[in-house]
Design a protein that fits this description.
Shape: globular
Strand order of the largest sheet: 1-2-3-4-5-7-6
Pfam families: Acetyltransf_7 (PF13508)
Number of domains: 1
InterPro entries: Acyl_CoA_acyltransferase, GNAT_dom
Protein name: GNAT family N-acetyltransferase
Organism: Sphaerisporangium album
Oligomer: single chain
Structural class: alpha+beta
Largest sheet: 7 strands, mixed
Order of helices and strands: EHHHEEHHEHEHEE
GO molecular function: acyltransferase activity, transferring groups other than amino-acyl groups
Radius of gyration: 16 Å
Length: 184
């Protein structure tokens, strides 16, 4: 049985090697991106109201993780995405989604443990009891299991075909009001 365990910023950064191992197995990024990703994750742990969940085996092996924080001006993702949404849909729409948002930065499950409801539990656990009005995140703009999961949880597309500055991959920016839809 996979258990979820809450971790604070200090414990999260102490477990970054295990986190990066799970991230690498799930996402298969180019090796040269891993040190930068680790640095980004370490920085995220300093953001306001940081929350992390680890999905662990009975032996304590991390096989999934998710984390988020309160989005605020001055955070790169927050500023880039809010500006992009304002350009496409108007400043009022962007404000409605980003003025008081939980930004879910990462949700990853090791491939050997996918399809067992762990990702759903991670998203629900991160959103549960949050004071923010909305939750927002980015995901590959493809018909993936992650996109299907987010839709089932009540997330709607805010922007599609979004390319981050300096990038080339297309992302969907999705959001949901909180609390999330009840389980089906």
């Amino acid at each position: 049985m996979i258990e979820l365990r809450r971790a604070g910023a200090e414990e999260f950064t102490a477990e970054l090697d295990a986190v990066i191992d799970t991230y690498t197995a799930a996402m298969r990024p180019p090796v040269e991106q891993l040190s930068g990703r680790q640095s980004i994750m370490r920085n995220h742990a300093t953001f306001p109201d940081f929350a992390c969940l680890f999905a662990e085996t009975p032996g304590g092996q991390i096989v999934g993780f998710g984390y988020g924080f309160h989005g605020a001006p001055g955070q790169w993702w927050h500023d880039v995405v809010r500006r992009g949404l304002a350009e496409r849909a108007g400043a009022g729409v962007a404000a409605a989604w980003f003025e008081n948002a939980l930004e879910i930065a990462e949700i990853h499950v090791h491939p050997g443990y996918q399809g067992k409801g762990i990702g759903r539990r991670l998203v629900r656990g991160l959103c549960e009891g949050r004071a923010e009005r909305t939750a927002v995140l980015s995901t590959h703009d493809q018909p993936t299991a992650a996109r299907h999961l987010y839709r089932r949880l009540g997330f709607v597309d805010l922007m599609g075909m979004f390319v981050f500055p300096g990038g080339y991959e297309r992302y969907a920016i999705v959001g949901s009001t909180l609390p999330l839809l009840p389980p089906d």
